[in-house]
TrEMBL record:
The AAA+ ATPase domain, residue ranges: 60-177
Keywords from the named record: ATP-binding, Nucleotide-binding
SMART domains: AAA (SM00382)
Disordered: region residues: 1-28
PANTHER family from the UniProt entry: ATPASE WRNIP1, WERNER HELICASE-INTERACTING PROTEIN 1 FAMILY MEMBER
Entries under Pfam families matching the protein: AAA, AAA_assoc_2, MgsA_C
This protein's name: Replication-associated recombination protein A
Matches recorded under Gene3D superfamilies: 1.10.8.60, 1.20.272.10, DNA polymerase III clamp loader subunits, C-terminal domain (1.10.3710.10), P-loop containing nucleotide triphosphate hydrolases (3.40.50.300)
Similarity field: Belongs to the AAA ATPase family. RarA/MGS1/WRNIP1 subfamily.
Amino acid sequence: MDLFASDTDSEKQSISVNGTAKEKSPLADALRPKTLNEVIGQDHLLGPDGILTNMLGHHTLSSLILWGNPGTGKTTIARILAHETDLHFLQISAIFSGVSDLKKAFDEAKRFRNHSGKGTLLFVDEIHRFNRAQQDGFLPVVEDGTIILIGATTENPSFTLNSALLSRCQILVLRRLDEQALSLLLSRAEQQLDRQLPLSKNARNDLISMADGDGRYLLNMVEQIILHAKNTILDSKNLTRILSRRATLYDRNRDGHYNLISALHKSLRGSDPDAALYWFARMLEGGEDPRYIARRLTRFAAEDVGLASPNALTLAIAAWETYERLGTPEGEVALAELVVYLATAPKSNAVYKAYNEVRAIAKKTGSFMPPAHILNAPTNMMKDLGYGKGYEYDHDTEEGFSGQNYFPDEMQPQQFYTPTNRGVEDTIAQRLSHWNQLRKKRSV
């Protein structure tokens, strides 16, 4: 049964089949797979060597969290698992349910087990919507076997589910449906409708692209085509007149946000301007604030490009200021220019590494005084204490370099910054090497 959920069989819709309007269930419901073999796009879970295939083969179904984009088959897989394992099936949605609803579900599962001896598969849609206390409510009934929990989520479980619940569940990642899977689903829809969709080859490809990996959205668009298309073949232009492209999956505060900024950073660090531009555009198309991207690009200029190309930081600030002056969309071009510059610039994180290392040392040696010879002596008392005594003014030396010690007396001089041989840092490395030679001569 489907506890607390509407009966999808009662949802009817008029679809023209062979030119005749008939009352039918929504196409997505009519084509819902009845067996695991009918599920498409998830061979890593349901193929011959798939995790779920092995579980069912050994009759050892455990509690699961199904993590994937909308329209990838999470609900379908849960229903089929209940049927394949002969478990009592209950379904709730975390959006519409609270503690009392959970208690009802748990009580029903206990009654069913006492009455029939069978377990219950409890499918919880949008499980990440439950708060920490509600998630804790699952622990005792999962542990004592009252329920097998199948949770579905579009959010990263490691961010949205507590560790206690995660430790009792196996995380399975559902993949977005690729072009081949969506094409197969489209063929199944045509078989169900007993007709070919009135689409040109290009329009058919565009339809699959518009679904963006979401099988349910694809079938919803097929219904719109059947309802609105006339007795003509639709080309790409006419197709877009009756359909809209699926909204890009991107949440500025959640997993998509972190995934894409990570992809942008890694592409920049890997010196791939084309991939970097792609992820930059994906973030903007998803609604990301360009100022956030500008801030992260500026950090990248300091952290990953560094002194290999000192102009990177200057250009980053300039691009950021340009966006502030021009706004969207003109200012985004300046950010795109910055993306390409950073991707193609020589890279060095030598300063970043040195900074992190020296911070750790500074915490341990926080009370060490500077050596007396580099301290100013504005009073006679300070002069008597030796402040400034023996200091050599570098500009007055032959090389413009005195080679004196500037570390605390309690510390041996150390090297934190090690420049690379890339870009400007190659010149810096040569300069430092020359100064080190002068220091050695001074110490002899």
